[in-house]
Amino acid sequence: MDSKTNQFKAEIAEMLDLVVNSLYSKKEIFLRELVSNASDAIDRAKYLGLTEKDLVADNPEWAIEIAVDKTAKTMMVSDNGIGMDAEDMEKNLGTIASSGTKAFRQALKEKGGDALPELIGQFGVGFYAAFMVADKVRVVSKKRGTSSAFMWESSMDGSYTISDATREAFGTSIMLHFRDDQTEYLDYWRVSELIKKYSDFIAYPIKFRQIDIPKDEKDEDKKWREERESKPLNTMVALWKRNKKDVKPEEYNEFYKHLTRDWEDPFETIPFSGEGQVEFKALLFIPKKATMEMFMPHEKRGLSLYVRNVFIGDDMEMLLPPYLRFVKGVVDSADLPLNVSREMLQDDAIIAKIKSAVTAKILSTLETMKKDAAKYGDFWKAFGSLLKEGVHTDYQNAERLKKLLKYPTARGEAGKLVFLEDYVKDMPSEQKDIYYIIAEREEDARRAPQIEQARKHGADVLLFCDPVDEYLTESLREFDGKKFVDLARGDVRFGSEAEQKAENEANEKAAGELKGFLETVKKTLESSVSDVKLSTRLADSPCCLVAKENAMPPSMVRMMRAMGQDVPEEKRILELNSSHPLIKKMASMKGAELDDAIALLYDSALIAEGSPVTDGARFGKLISALMMK
Ligand code: ADP
């Protein structure tokens, strides 16, 4: 091919600029990134080689080499992994996955340059970390299964060049030309220290080699050099196989970063082994923060799978139920055949057993974490809505999951969440059900007129304001033998039997007195509401809207419409507070004055729940007229 020079996509140029000029103190992590990529490339070659024998016909001894040349100020990180052809180079080293580009820029803008290392990791562009220490990077690679080698080169001037190259062996070499102030990485001790620190668990030997050997090298120097070049810098022990007592937290943390490309330490580390029906070792992690991908339905998820130390694949989604997709980690089992395909694993009985053991372990970890309110609070903030998904989808564990849910309540101050068992514990003795109200915003839920009587009777109300809460109501059903009741639908009654009886009598009497008025309201609002009734749930507000027992929640209707579905208008019931002075006053109005008051009353009910009024212009006119009076 002709040598081809391309401009980096604008985003990358911008990013490189930031990388180069970043004052980030831990520039050393560039080595971890390159070694990680090399290890991944070998993993891939090894895995593909299981089925495509031609790819590994050279019978490789898998290894990674770090070769330094002090005179030329270069370091070359080489592997004999899968390799890249020109197209791969263009795709992998010239662009950020297009789906991520926009998000990256956005995050960069929001968080600023300081967050750069974290963002590089989060967006899977670790390779560019090389430019923190090097002013020129050259990649030479020969892809397994092909016969030509290619070179990718860039000096951070906004462009890169891809051209033909020569390389005997399959694999990739990344050569960095260090900047003058970054030559510390040419030193054996520094490199050795970094590998121990960040990459000790890498499963392939990482060897050190010196390129520029002085012609007059002394015998003892030669001996020492050969000795250090003969053994790997890393111990290569699979962390999940080691006794957790013998593993330092930093080792777990570095492994986590290698595995996930997260730049932060994990929030929780869960090493454990499965015994009994299936034997396996697992090392699981809960990250500190949710990534955007966790909320994209088709993004990669799942654990990495090893069979007897051999890497089978990452993103094994069959090892985790979808709602636990925030959990990262590794499972290693000797009970699976080496030659398994993803498809076979999909409905493998052993996998199903591992999945349920892994799920149980994660849930029990969260149950323990629950005792530490602050810690669980942080977890909940990051991943709570995913657990809610589990109540809906994991029938088997739904009861356990319900105990892990937290909600804001009408009584608690903003930001304070309670577990369902705490809610139940605080229920007044006469309260039989668990009350909730759905709204888009917590403020609206707190102010909802529908919860007034409940509050007056000393009952607290769960505020369901997360978009998934609404779907969840279907699956929640009961907790501790108590039904979940939406205070904005159907009939609700509060207080003791005697109180309810007295209320019935008062309501019957009021209904008789207000009969004509109620009929007029119903007739006037015919096109908007299905019925007008006296309320048992209001205390201070004159009116509210409630759904029929089996109606769809209004926000779901809004959402389905937004998705283009034709959802017929389901009219709600307007409930009036017969003891409210406004209702009493309206009952004595007539003609146009009454019509206007009824229209305003209805609009005020909409506004109270955060819904838009039906006819804004008319509403405005009525309000001005009212103010003039
Ligand atoms: P990430 O590794 O998170 O995907 P990087 O920017 O580090 O992001 O690397 C981009 C891509 O370049 C990798 O996904 C891989 O496809 C390719 N790549 C990088 N280093 C190597 C290597 N040593 N061998 C083969 N492919 C590589």
Short description:
The protein is of the alpha+beta class. It is built from 22 helices and 22 strands. The chain folds into four domains: 4-236, Histidine kinase-like ATPase, C-terminal domain (Heat Shock Protein 90, 2-Layer Sandwich), CATH 3.30.565; 240-369, Ribosomal Protein S5, domain 2, CATH 3.30.230.80; 405-486, 3-Layer(aba) Sandwich (Rossmann fold), CATH 3.40.50; 497-628, Four Helix Bundle (Hemerythrin (Met), subunit A).
Task: Describe the structure in your own words.
With 629 residues, this protein is of the alpha+beta class. It folds into 4 domains: 4-236, Histidine kinase-like ATPase, C-terminal domain (Heat Shock Protein 90); 240-369, Ribosomal Protein S5, domain 2; 405-486, 3-Layer(aba) Sandwich (Rossmann fold); 497-628, Four Helix Bundle (Hemerythrin (Met), subunit A), CATH 1.20.120. 40% of the residues lie in helices and 19% in strands. The chain has an 8-stranded mixed β-sheet with strand order 1-6-5-4-7-3-2-8. Helix 2 crosses helix 6 and helix 11 crosses helix 16. Residues 97-101 have low confidence and may be disordered. The structure holds adenosine-5'-diphosphate. Adenosine-5'-diphosphate binds at residues 33, 37-38, 41, 79, 81-82, 84, 92-93, 124-127, 172, 261. Residues 33, 37-38, 41, 79, 81-82, 84, 92-93, 124-127, 172, 261 line the site of adenosine-5'-diphosphate (ADP).
